[in-house]
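Re-run requested by the PI after the first attempt was lost when the workstation crashed. Everything re-entered from the original request form. Ligand of interest: beta-D-ribofuranose.
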Amino acid sequence: KNPVIISTDPGIDDAVAIAIATSDEALDVKLISPISGNVSLEKTTLNTQKLLTFFHKPIRIVPGSHKPLLRPAKDASGVHGKTGMDGYPFPEITTKVDDSVTAATAMHEIVSTSDQPVTLMGIGPLTDIALFIHQYPDDLANIKEVVLMGGSLGRGNFGVLSEFNFATDPEAAKIVFTSGLTIRVAPMEIGRQAKIMPTTSEKIKTLGRVGDMFYKLFSKYRGGSFKKGLNMYDALAVALVLKPELFEQVKTHVEIETTGRYTAGASLIDLKGYLDMPDNATVAVNVDTDKFEKWFVEEIGKTMS
Ligand code: BDR
Ligand code: CA
């Protein structure tokens, strides 16, 4: 089993990613660290607790940062609803939160004692992963890879040229991309390619209590416009680990803009080599959408056991 740490801001697409990652037998999720992002840290923590209660998964939850390294917190509750996971009456929470250490220290505890290299999965702002990298440099040798959903090949979904996860904490994203770690990333456009269309949502609806739960969350995603298809952004990071063959992946240099007056957080994914810098990441530039949808439904099906 591949040991994994997830830094996340649930978030409806995060909820799906967490469900898949914690149910697939190839992965061993050691820690989930909620972070401020789509909604506040308090809410993303509650949402993580709700999900792990719902799925009966006693995974360690250590809350992370309540704001980015240098900038004020942002919010995407317009997309995910006021709670971050609107639409489903989750059962009373039974999972506990461990706030005896920071998220970075919890990551260190796991990575420094793991007998197998650990995968760090970042599906929210990168603040806590950056803090871990900065505070525990000796641990980096035991990181298998950092797998991210974030950045964009072209324009943005948060700024003109910037994607939400990177733009909320550009300095953190920069630390990650200059760390020397092996990085794989699914940018925004790939999330948009891999839309879950209404027929698929209807299939998911039939998948017992899990299907019912996700269908209800989906019906609130982006204010209820799920009929046009839903961007399952964060599930792509999980797919990159579990089903890399679904993607066309290219090694390239990724630069994170931190000083741009209007462009901070933009990811310059230098596919044409304009910057003449060494490769520091592998970027998904295409996904097989039919296979992705099929995989997605199968994985949601697995979460029922
Ligand atoms: C990313 O931003 C968040 O709203 C989603 O959860 C995803 O991680 C997409 O840009
Ligand atoms: Ca997210």
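Saved to the shared folder this time. The mean pLDDT is 95.
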